[in-house]
């Protein structure tokens, strides 16, 4: 049925593109959640710069969505600055920064944690996000006076026992820096938020499950099935890359225009309630 007023189908299609003409930089955008977000941003009208260390995957994806690719190790401030400068050179502005890149950290007991490995993780997961916020904010303040910065944290940041000590520390630190910078940058119209995925079958999570369960051939589908059974209130339903990408799209869009310093948890309710108690409602 054509809407009242006679708007044609083509206009409807254009108006549904929530990021039309926006320019975005996505770190860790070559695969996983970053790649899913890059594709969704493109589908919604955005111009996307993919910044990653996976050159072949990143270049191929960027070409497929009419975007740009740049080699970027987020632990190096100059690399992150270069990624944002590429967006400015290409399109003259930066509207969205998705600080998504991250790595897994050393596991094991706190009594024998490898501090050198831990510092490597912090350099990527925490410093990398700070680099992204810093240089995105500079571009947004001097440019269009506004924008959306989104940082990828984890359900491990708000619930103990879900990941290694080092990874948990790094992801909770991201919540702190996002809220702190949201206080400063709000006067410039810049929103800073976090997205907290849980149980998404990324390369990182699948690798962790393989190690924990001692099954080197464990597939992403099998990991999703485990999460769906044990890590969600929505039994039979696990998170996908696209679920997280949709959350990031919302935070990047005008629909979230009055949302800042917020942690958007994508966890099927796992960190909010006990799925093991659901049996009491079935009697």
TrEMBL record:
Keyword set, alphabetical order: Oxidoreductase
Gene3D superfamilies per the UniProt record, alphabetical: NAD(P)-binding Rossmann-like Domain (3.40.50.720)
InterPro entries: NAD(P)-bd_dom_sf (IPR036291), SDR_fam (IPR002347)
GO molecular function, one term: oxidoreductase activity, acting on the CH-OH group of donors, NAD or NADP as acceptor
Protein family according to the UniProt entry: Belongs to the short-chain dehydrogenases/reductases (SDR) family.
Protein name: Uncharacterized protein
Species for this entry: Ilex paraguariensis (yerba mate)
């Amino acid at each position: 049925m054509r809407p009242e007023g006679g708007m044609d189908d083509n206009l409807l299609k254009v108006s549904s593109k929530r990021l039309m003409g926006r320019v975005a930089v996505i770190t860790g955008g070559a695969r996983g959640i970053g790649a899913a977000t890059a594709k969704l941003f493109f589908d919604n009208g955005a111009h996307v710069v993919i910044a990653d260390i996976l050159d072949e995957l990143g270049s191929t994806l960027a070409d497929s969505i009419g975007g740009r690719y740049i080699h970027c190790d987020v632990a190096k401030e100059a690399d992150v600055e270069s990624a944002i400068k590429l967006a400015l050179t290409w399109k003259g502005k930066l509207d969205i920064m998705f600080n998504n890149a991250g790595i897994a950290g050393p596991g094991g007991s706190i009594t024998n944690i490898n501090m050198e490995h831990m510092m490597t993780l912090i350099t990527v997961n925490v410093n990398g996000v700070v680099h992204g916020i810093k240089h995105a904010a500079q571009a947004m303040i001097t440019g269009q006076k506004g924008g959306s910065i989104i940082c990828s944290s984890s359900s491990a940041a708000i619930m103990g026992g879900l990941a290694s000590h080092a990874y948990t520390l790094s992801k909770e630190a991201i919540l702190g820096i996002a809220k702190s910078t949201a206080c400063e940058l709000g006067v410039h119209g810049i929103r800073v938020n976090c997205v907290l995925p849980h149980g998404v079958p990324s390369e990182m999570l699948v690798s962790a499950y393989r190690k924990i369960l001692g099954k080197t051939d464990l597939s992403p589908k099998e990991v999703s099935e485990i999460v769906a059974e044990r890590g969600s209130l929505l039994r039979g339903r696990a998170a996908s890359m696209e679920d997280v990408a949709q959350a990031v799209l919302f935070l990047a869009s005008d629909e979230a225009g009055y949302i800042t310093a917020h942690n958007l948890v994508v966890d099927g309710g796992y960190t909010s309630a006990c799925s093991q108690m659901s049996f009491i409602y079935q009697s």
